[in-house]
Amino acid sequence: MLLAVGRTTVFRLAKEQGFPKAFKLGNKIIKYSRIEMLAWLKSKKDR
Question: In this structure, what are the phi and psi dihedrals at residue 8, rounded to the nearest 5 degrees?
């Protein structure tokens, strides 16, 4: 787990510009690219 936040927070963050796009693995399963998520976290840290 890269982010220790709830689902609601993830959905709120997903509306921000630059947040990685999700992809569906199943009917109710949404995932994010680990590489893109790490890059996003690094960009937040570098600010």
Answer: -60, -40
In the chain, which ranges are continuous DSSP H helix? 7-14, 34-45
Q: Report which residue type is found at 7.
A: R
What residues does each domain of the chain span? 7-45
Does residue 1 sit in helix, strand or coil?
A: coil
Q: Is 31 a residue whose pLDDT tops 80?
A: yes
Q: What are phi and psi of 40, to 5 degrees?
A: -65, -45
Number of H helices, E strands in the chain: 2, 2
Inter-residue contact 9 to 1 (CB < 8 Å): no
Mean predicted confidence (pLDDT) in 30-34: 93
